[in-house]
């Protein structure tokens, strides 16, 4: 197979997440003609691009059509289907994947599919394999969109989830569960008491719901996150163990010639069974495809180079799942394999590679392991910075110890324990040994978590990363210097120095609620903290990742507008994690200064003026919201909380000079409710922009149409976080520079699908 054909087809498919618009179905007729023309003329790059484009357009359009079909049901809808998510009593309330086959008692057409994400809060909880009939309110597969943090919308596309749903009523139809669910139910009493039970469950069933945020922080910051899941590495280990078992079995079998290929078949069987334990998750599927190709080549007596194996695997994976490019695990796994393949070709030609004096031959495996880890460190650096905004300085030495330890001790113990547990022979002792085997590994991880280096991903950082990658893979050989020069020139051309920013205001996308970050000189003040949930909240999911990506370990200030949970829900977490130097609130709170009219203070050269309320109360309601005007002497921002028309009128009456309200940017009071934003108040503020912090399809139907119309009538540019995602104003030399995350930073086709439904989302006005 031509390398250019494979590369162009794969790159075209992998570019799908960045397409600004999605071509219609009829484009495929043109691309098919181009494909045959490319094959006929042997223009393999053209044929590959056309094939990739055809498959991408077909797959993406089909996914979009299924999304639009299912979310067209705007009222309460009855769906029938099968639970696709493992459930554990230890996990409690959780989001489940529900594979739908009937909508309102009508069976889906053969070309239709519907996968819905349902948040299940109370018993009776469903288990994988059961059939249920649910009454739900369907919502588009949208998510909050901020500068960093979990990208729910990309996750939904990668998992082919077509809608979210709020559960109204549930009726169980069958109680038959899958064998994986039965195994989980069997293992739960054994693994729950163990210290590393969550890690062992991830290694045995690929189920990571027991791993807490603290667990993930430790694993990520030590560079060991890849070890605590059934990944391609573990499927490879299973394959190797199966091969060895087959060799041992072949020795004891008669007529050994009849069992020449027994190790190969046993290896494939063990790898498939282990992948099945993980529910054939995407990383395991990719590993199985690669192992299947290797096995077929061995069986046929053919030789497959690592590069050919890589390109065939990529092509087959993308042919099976054209939306794989949306998955972070796809990029991580294939970038690791790609780096190793390039290292193989680069270093195998270098003198002395893999060689050592005969007296030091025992060091060769250690040298190879060290080089592999260094290649992975350099080769994975761009994606590591892109996805995680940092890198573990201790990852290489820790992996040198942890990878062989887990692969040679922990994983075999897990295999043995699974075998004993499934055959009814116990296995408790094996699980305990596996738990003990993780003690040194996790001790290393905990000690190394402090080695995490947060690195902002800027264009200059990318340039140095590319250069380091080129040097690491090719080495300082004279005939390769031209390649390094080209890389260096490209890096310099593509680098652009960012504009100097005086200060900036970020209205974060927190759904229904409010969180505003004011920052200058690497320092920050937070106005409101968003809502909280039973487990976690906006502070943990949105605010903390942003502060970490900006290297802000401590807030200079925290202001709570009032006491509603959608404004102060994350206050306790923020205080505990970021220890604000000062705290203010409009109500009487322990540890907080009061925010009352007439107070003024300065921070980083900015003037803060509290305009409302006249006195602190306990508790503070909407009309007691802390209203603050921030100014640099020329430009200003007004933060209004949830103040309503009565409070607005009283505020206007209390001001001798209403020009004190005059601001360039105004936070729309009370999320755009009809109870706020009186014409007189809008006129007194006289903003150029007004931004409402709202959640898409919220039950209060905010923002109200008449409120938006009032701002537009006053010639104010309207923005809201449901339509725009995070909204940022940066004070530069020429004034304010506006950035809307959904339109200006991540304007991809799949982020616009929910606009096909008739909702108030005209973000482009």
UniProtKB/TrEMBL annotation:
In Swiss-Prot or TrEMBL terms, this protein is called DNA internalization-related competence protein ComEC/Rec2
Annotated SMART domains? Lactamase_B (SM00849)
Membrane-crossing residues? 12-37, 43-63, 224-242, 262-282, 330-348, 369-388, 400-420, 451-474, 481-498
Cell membrane as a keyword?
Answer: yes
What region holds the Metallo-beta-lactamase domain? 512-671
* InterPro entries according to UniProt: ComA-like_MBL, ComEC_N, Competence_ComEC/Rec2, Competence_DNA_uptake, DUF4131, Metallo-B-lactamas, RibonucZ/Hydroxyglut_hydro
Question: Which organism is this protein's natural source?
Answer: Salinivibrio costicola subsp. alcaliphilus
Please name the PANTHER family in this protein's record: DNA INTERNALIZATION/COMPETENCE PROTEIN COMEC/REC2, RECOMBINATION PROTEIN 2
Sorted keywords for this record are: Cell membrane, Membrane, Transmembrane, Transmembrane helix
Location in the cell reads: Cell membrane
Look up and give the membrane topology term. Answer: Multi-pass membrane protein
A Pfam family hit: DUF4131
């Amino acid at each position: 197979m031509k390398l250019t054909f494979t590369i162009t087809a794969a790159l075209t498919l992998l570019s799908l997440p960045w397409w600004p618009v999605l071509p219609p179905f009829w484009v495929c007729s043109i691309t098919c003609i181009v494909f045959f023309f490319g094959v006929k003329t042997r223009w393999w790059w053209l044929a590959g691009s056309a094939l990739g484009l055809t498959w991408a357009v077909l797959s993406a359009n089909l996914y979009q059509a299924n999304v639009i079909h299912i979310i067209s049901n705007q009222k309460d809808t009855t769906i029938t289907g099968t639970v696709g998510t493992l459930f554990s009593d230890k996990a409690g309330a959780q989001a489940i994947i529900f594979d739908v086959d009937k909508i309102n008692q009508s069976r889906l057409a053969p070309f239709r599919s519907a996968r819905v994400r349902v948040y299940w809060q109370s018993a009776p909880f469903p288990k994988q394999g059961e059939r249920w009939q649910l009454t739900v309110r369907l919502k588009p597969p949208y998510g909050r969109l901020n500068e960093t943090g979990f990208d729910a919308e990309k996750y939904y596309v990668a998992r082919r989830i077509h809608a979210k749903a709020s559960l109204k009523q549930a009726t169980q139809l069958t109680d038959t569960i899958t064998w994986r669910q039965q195994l989980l139910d069997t293992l739960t009493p054994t693994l729950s008491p163990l210290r590393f039970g969550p890690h062992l469950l991830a290694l045995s069933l690929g189920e990571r719901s027991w791993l807490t945020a603290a667990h993930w922080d430790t694993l990520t910051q030590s560079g060991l996150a890849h070890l605590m899941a059934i990944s391609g590495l573990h499927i490879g280990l299973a394959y190797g163990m199966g091969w060895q078992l087959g060799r041992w079995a072949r020795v004891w079998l008669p007529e050994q010639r009849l069992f020449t290929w027994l190790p190969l078949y046993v290896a494939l069987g063990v790898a498939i069974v282990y992948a099945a334990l993980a529910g054939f998750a995407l990383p395991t599927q990719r590993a199985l495809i690669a192992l299947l190709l290797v096995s077929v080549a061995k069986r046929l007596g053919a030789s497959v180079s690592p590069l050919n194996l890589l390109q065939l695997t990529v092509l087959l994976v993308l042919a099976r799942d054209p939306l794989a490019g949306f998955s972070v695990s796809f990029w991580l796994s294939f970038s690791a394999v790609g780096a190793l393949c390039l290292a193989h070709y680069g270093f195998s030609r270098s003198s002395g590679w893999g060689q050592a004096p005969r007296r030091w031959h025992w060091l060769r495996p250690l040298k190879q392991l060290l080089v592999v880890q260094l290649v992975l460190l350099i080769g994975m650096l761009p994606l590591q910075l892109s996805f995680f905004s940092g890198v573990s300085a201790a990852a290489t030495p820790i992996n040198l110890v942890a990878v062989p330890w887990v692969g040679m001790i922990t994983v075999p113990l897990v295999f043995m324990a699974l075998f004993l547990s499934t055959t009814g022979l116990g296995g408790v002792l094996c699980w305990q040994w596996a738990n003990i085997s993780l003690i040194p590994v996790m001790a290393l991880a905990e000690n190394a978590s402090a080695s995490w280096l947060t690195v902002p991903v800027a264009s200059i950082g990318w340039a140095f990363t590319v250069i380091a990658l080129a040097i690491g893979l090719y080495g300082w050989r004279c005939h390769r210097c031209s390649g390094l020069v080209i890389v260096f020139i490209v890096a310099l051309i593509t680098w652009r120095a960012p504009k100097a920013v005086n200060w900036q205001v970020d209205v974060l996308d927190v759904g229904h609620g409010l969180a505003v970050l004011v920052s200058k000189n690497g320092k920050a003040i937070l106005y409101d903290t968003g809502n909280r949930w039973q487990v976690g909240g906006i502070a943990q999911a949105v605010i903390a990742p942003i502060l970490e990506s900006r290297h802000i370990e401590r807030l200079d200030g925290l202001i709570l507008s009032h006491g509603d949970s959608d404004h102060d829900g994350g206050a306790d977490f923020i205080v505990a994690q970021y220890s604000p130097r000062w705290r203010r609130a409009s109500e009487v709170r322990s540890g907080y200064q009061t925010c009352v009219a007439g107070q003024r203070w300065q921070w980083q050269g900015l003037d803060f003026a509290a305009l409302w309320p006249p006195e602190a109360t306990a508790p503070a309601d909407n009309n007691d919201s802390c209203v603050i005007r921030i100014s640099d002497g020329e430009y200003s921002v007004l933060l209004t909380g949830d103040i309503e028309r009565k409070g607005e009128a009283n505020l206007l009456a209390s001001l001798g000079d209403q020009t004190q309200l005059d601001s360039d940017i105004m936070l729309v009071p009370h999320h755009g409710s009809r109870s706020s934003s009186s014409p007189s108040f809008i006129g007194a503020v006289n903003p150029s922009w007004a931004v409402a912090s709202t959640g898409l399809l919220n039950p209060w139907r905010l923002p109200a149409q008449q409120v938006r119309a009032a701002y537009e009538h006053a010639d104010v540019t309207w923005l809201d976080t449901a339509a725009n995602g995070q909204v940022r104003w940066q004070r530069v030399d020429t004034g304010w520079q506006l950035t809307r995350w959904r339109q200006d930073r991540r304007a991809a086709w799949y982020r616009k699908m929910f606009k096909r439904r008739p909702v108030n989302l005209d973000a482009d006005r």
